[in-house]
Amino acid sequence: MNPKKRPVEGVKKPVSRVVLGSVMMDSDDLPLSFGLLDYYFECGGNCIDSAWIYRLGKSEKCIGIWIRQRGVREHVVLLGKGGAPIENCTPEIVTAQLMESLERLQTDYLDIYLLHRDNPGVPVGEFVDCLNQHYQAGLMHCFGGSNWTIGRLAAANEYAKQHGLRGFGASSPNLSLAVWNEPTWTDCVSASDWQSRNWYRDTGLALFAWSSQAAGFFTDRYKEEDAGKETTKEMARVWFNAANFERLRRVKSLANQKNVQPSQVALAYVLTDPAYTFALVGPANVEELRQCFDAEDIVLSPVERRWLNLEE
């Protein structure tokens, strides 16, 4: 297995295109979390996504313990996030959360740091100034926004250009083959619309797609008639619609032709996007993680991509 990697501006090592999410990791259950982290690293993966808010800090603590015990800090790319919800996305609170994240992760820098939310009430220049201060202090090698609109991203980089500062080098919106009915959480942003996707393609900004497999929608777990069930209420709220179930049918058909899993086809759709994409994944076990790596080898033609997305 040889996971694919790409450079990201400012990051000193190539970054795995399949990024291991950590929202399921917990310092109170190290064996399960370490099993995933060890397998990911042994397979050649090197980018771990984290956030100040995940499991009230226990996810970051888990990663920090693993990095210290394995002695792999210089071999991994740590992607951290801070400033969520919106009221916590101010330069002052983000700074405080950044320092706490560094302590939990037992590191003195993050390879990539993203503002977990945007606060439109704060001028973009204040965020750019703040992040440049931390960059110049060596606390991060690349920074950007998660759940920022393309308008605010463009404004931030224009401000940076005008003031001779470093701009945003990465962004993390939702992107998947499925298109949501409404955001999974409040104040989240998707890049599934064509305006956003064209913007990312044209700018080449590194796009770290969260919920790249639509929270497991492209599996055999969900059927249209399950919409009213209590156990699928949240999935139905976000992902259940006629267009997505038609996408699911097409994904299953193509997966059968290629002798792969439907979820792998859905992940390949994100990885073959013309934008500069990376895919955040949240596998429940090592088998699901293996399937994510194998999805990198699935080739989707432009015609297949259009067909999957109901464009023809």
Structure description:
The chain is of the alpha/beta class and 312 residues long. Helix content is 41%, strand content 12%. The protein has helices at residues 30-42, 58-70, 91-105, 124-136, 150-162, 194-203, 233-239, 242-258, 262-271, 286-294, 302-308; strands spanning 5-6, 15-16, 18-20, 47-49, 77-82, 112-115, 143-146, 170-172, 206-209, 277-281. Strands 3-10-9-8-7-6-5-4 form an eight-stranded parallel β-sheet, with helices on one face. The longest helix is centred in the C-terminal third of the chain and has 17 residues, at 242-258. The two termini are 34 Å apart. The mean pLDDT is 97.
Number of helices: 11
**Highest CATH level, the class:** Alpha Beta
Number of domains as seen in the coordinates: 1
The arrangement of helices and strands along the chain is: EEEHEHEHEHEHEHEHHHEHH
Overall mean pLDDT: 97
How would you characterize the largest beta sheet?
A: 8 strands, parallel
CATH topology: TIM Barrel
Distance between the termini: 34 Å
- Looking at CATH, the homologous superfamily is NADP-dependent oxidoreductase domain
Q: What CATH architecture do you see?
A: Alpha-Beta Barrel
